[in-house]
Amino acid sequence: MWSLEVVVLSFAILIVVIILLFREIQMEVVASVAVLGLATVWFMGRRRGRQLYKSFYDEEIIRLEEEQKKAEDETIEDKVRKALQDKWR
């Protein structure tokens, strides 16, 4: 999933590289700008991926804790219900 910042940065880098090529700047400079831009986009994507994974992981932990608590609550309710049924018999 691409964020708007990454897309804008990618287009900005592409535009800078094209302008540098048309201005007949040395290829080493253009290549350096392109590589630096790609590395920046890669790091931003990696950071975003880690944030998404962390939020997904946190949500799953919360969901599992709620399910476990619900299962424990149901177990207690079942025990009380069973004890009442045994008492009334």
Explain what you see:
- The model has no long low-confidence stretch (mean pLDDT 86).
- The chain has one domain.
- It has 2 helices and no strands.
- It is mainly alpha-helical and 89 residues long.
- Please write the string of helix (H) and strand (E) elements: HH
Query: How many beta-strand runs?
Result: 0
Structural class: mainly alpha
Q: Specify the biggest β-sheet.
A: none
Instruction: Label the overall shape.
Output: rod-shaped
Q: Output mean pLDDT.
A: 86
Q: Could you list the spans in which at least 5 consecutive residues all have pLDDT below 50?
A: none
Distance between the termini: 61 Å
Task: Provide the fold topology.
Layout: H1 4-22, H2 27-88
Helix pairs in contact: 1-2
